[in-house]
Design goal:
The complex is a heterodimer of chains A (442) and B (182).
Chain A: E1 17-18, E2 23-25, H1 32-43, E3 48-52, E4 61-67, E5 70-76, E6 82-86, E7 101-103, E8 106-108, E9 115-117, E10 122-124, H2 129-132, E11 149-153, E12 156-160, H3 168-172, H4 175-183, E13 190-192, E14 197-201, H5 205-214, H6 217-222, H7 224-231, E15 244-248, E16 251-255, H8 261-264, H9 269-277, H10 279-291, E17 298-302, E18 306-308, E19 314-320, E20 326-335, H11 340-352, H12 361-373, H13 378-381, E21 384-386, E22 394-395, E23 403-406, H14 412-426
Antiparallel strand pairs in A: 1-2, 2-21, 3-12, 4-5, 4-7, 5-6, 8-9, 9-10, 11-12, 13-20, 14-20, 15-16, 15-23, 16-17, 17-18, 18-19, 19-20, 22-23
Helix pairs in contact in A: 1-14, 5-14
Chain B: H1 3-7, H2 18-36, H3 40-44, E1 47-56, E2 76-80, H4 82-92, E3 105-117, E4 123-136, E5 140-155, E6 158-168
Parallel strand pairs in B: 1-6
Antiparallel strand pairs in B: 1-2, 3-4, 4-5, 5-6
The chains are: A alpha+beta (442), B alpha+beta (182).
Chain lengths: 442, 182
């Protein structure tokens, strides 16, 4: 049954995804071999979200996070630039800092006391004279491993380990135009509210990412209880005539363009008042189409594992922890210029809904865990999964860049997401990654 | 804020008499039994209308970091008033709360109970340790443990929870969700 049992040639990962038919092999969500290849082909090559600039405003501020399974320190430098490097000592590999956030002039490893600057450079160590007679030893050869590139887009900081990766601008492509809906709907820019909520879900990371890439379909059923608790009624998608799936390079944004459908579910009227009051300003900044997406029924995943919900403003990374576990890191994004009471409303609203004790999130984790775990069965994992909703729904749009498919109850973004996955899993280098901007069968 | 500052004795604080302590222990055990029974409406009945039910995220910070491991402005798992607790409870009661069916087998264990007087003769600071072991489906099991600092108010002979600070032992919540109270 195995489609990749030939030890002499690399496995044909792309054969596990038939995007044009809406079929994905279940082994994507279970096999250790697939997972290890993802670490190499995807997480060590793609641009990954590492922090928001507001988390490290001052020189020597740092946060610790993960890129794939690699521990990383993200630190603001004296010249206000940002560096990111491995949180693992270049001597024996011990983790260097265990703080998730702070301000430090440097980092010292607990094991032998090797000390590094906030730029990751090796500064010194105890008994350093012992190294003076050590042939060929140069401190500069033992700096902490830097990311290959680190760039911000309007407050969001991304990094890649691959020196050959395209620029962030190129990686985002036309998706940057959509990111402005969240990042540039106010002249003051954005910030994360203080604090990161972390939890563990025993699910494959892609089930979480694919839920946010465009699975509005599940909301009506999965979140019936949450919607009734927050709004006193079941999920009502409203008029779906303008709803679209938008895909760029595997990044996906599904939206009903209904202005405020998502943000209403936070149960905080102040938030809707705020956006209603700003409606004309937002239209001036973004145009009517994007203004209608600011708080609409919608969800977004940026390939591979960074997701958010416009309106609810929960931003999250599905940190992979093996083929069947993730660590979920979440933050709340707000406009810096928002009145404090609106920021407070966001904090409360997200805790009530998209948080481990929240009335929406509670049912999501359960679904993803058991979608993953059922593949323990050998026969089960040799079945395929259906991603066929909305096949043939792609349209041309004069207004919206990217690949546009009509309808919210659609799996077009999923198909583009898994096509991107297949392309990256197969491509030996970025130059081999196909440009799929043109309309195809998906 | 630091955990130690929240739980260490304040100057001049006195234990209540044993009779009062026994009454408040009984209150906490009763509360736990209601949670094990999923009698959430009845549990809500033990909350004062001005309840502040707070379980902040506990951060890993350097000991020298004056910002402490939690604060009122940072994210929390709960930072609830009465209405917010009620909203969460409303969901538990719905037949479409899929992850609640079949039911979770909850055990809430409470120990290390100490009851102190406060400046208000009708309010008591009650400290305790909880363990919530929950088992669901076939083999899903989570153990969540922490400390609590409660303010419990006596109104006409009945006790009501007015404030609860829950100091979780986890940094990363080692569970997919929290489908109960502590």
């Amino acid at each position: 049954m195995s489609r990749f049992n030939n030890a002499k040639s690399p496995p044909d990962w792309a054969s596990l995804v038939s995007a044009d038919k809406g079929v994905v092999d279940r082994r994507l969500f279970w096999d250790k071999e697939v997972y290890e290849a993802e670490m190499q082909q995807i997480f060590s090559r793609c641009w990954l979200f590492v922090a928001h600039e507001s988390q490290i405003p001052n020189p020597n501020d740092y946060v610790t996070t993960y890129m794939g399974e690699d521990l990383v320190i993200v630190a603001r430098q004296k010249d206000h630039s940002i560096k990111a490097f491995l949180n693992s000592c270049s001597h024996r590999g011990n983790q260097i800092t265990f703080s998730e956030k702070g301000n430090a002039r440097g980092f010292t490893c607990n094991y032998h006391g090797w000390s590094f600057g906030t730029d990751g450079a090796l500064k010194g160590m105890p008994q350093s004279e012992a190294y003076e007679n050590c042939p060929g030893f140069k401190k500069c050869d033992h700096d902490l491993k830097q990311v290959a590139n680190i760039e911000s887009y309007k407050g969001l900081i991304f990094a890649t380990f691959d020196p050959d990766a395209p620029s962030l601008k190129e990686y985002l492509g036309e998706f940057a135009w959509y990111l402005d809906i969240m990042l540039d709907n106010d002249e003051g820019g954005t910030e994360f509210l203080p604090g990161c909520t972390k939890s563990v879900i025993k699910a494959n990371w892609k089930f979480c990412a694919d839920n946010f890439v465009g699975d509005a379909y599940h909301a009506e059923w999965t979140h019936d209880s949450g919607a009734n608790a927050m709004l006193g009624q079941s999920v009502n998608y409203g008029n779906l005539k303008d709803a679209v799936h938008i895909s760029v390079n595997g990044h996906g944004w599904a939206t009903n363009m209904d202005k405020f459908g998502n943000l209403r579910t936070l149960g905080e009227p102040l938030i809707e008042d705020y956006y209603r009051g700003r409606w004309h300003d937002v239209v001036d900044r973004l145009g009517a189409a994007r203004a209608r997406m600011v708080g609409a029924v919608s969800s977004v995943t940026m390939f591979p594992n960074f997701s958010f919900l416009p309106g609810q403003n929960t931003f999250r990374v599905w940190q992979p922890r093996g083929p069947n576990e993730i660590e979920l890191h979440t933050w709340v994004l707000v406009n810096k210029n928002m009145p404090q009471e609106v920021k407070d409303a966001y904090r409360r609203g997200v805790m009530m809904t998209f948080s481990p004790a929240g009335v929406f999130e509670m049912d999501d984790g359960e679904n993803w865990e058991f979608s993953t775990r059922s593949n323990r069965g050998y026969i089960t994992r040799n079945q395929s999964l259906s991603y066929s909703l909305g096949l043939g729904s792609e349209i041309q749009s004069d207004e919206l860049p990217g690949r546009i498919s009509k309808g919210l109850i659609n799996e077009a973004n999923h198909r583009h997401y898994y096509q991107r996955w297949a392309d990256l899993m197969t491509a030996e280098s970025w130059s081999n990654v196909p440009d799929r901007k043109e309309s195809g069968e998906c | 804020m630091l955990v130690a500052d929240s739980i260490l004795p304040k100057l001049g604080r006195q234990y209540v008499d044993l009779n009062r302590e026994q009454e408040l222990k009984r209150f906490l055990y009763h509360e736990s039994r209601l949670l094990d029974a999923e009698e959430y409406e009845a549990w809500l009945g033990l909350m004062a209308e001005d309840i502040h039910y707070w379980m902040p995220v506990q951060e890993n910070r350097d000991r020298k970091d004056k910002a402490g491991t939690f604060s009122a402005t940072r994210m929390a798992f709960f930072d609830d008033n009465y209405q917010q607790l009620k909203t969460r409870i409303d969901r538990f009661g719905m037949h479409t709360a899929w992850s609640e069916n079949p039911r979770t087998r909850h055990v809430h264990s409470v120990s290390n109970i100490e009851v102190f007087e406060t400046a208000n003769p009708e309010e008591f600071e009650v400290q305790s340790v909880f363990i919530n072991c929950r088992n669901a489906r076939e083999r899903d099991q989570d153990i969540i443990m922490g400390r609590r600092v409660d303010l419990i108010r006596c109104v006409k002979g009945d006790y009501y929870l007015a404030k609860r600070l829950i100091i979780l032992s986890h940094n990363v919540l080692l569970s997919k969700n929290i489908n109960t109270f502590f």
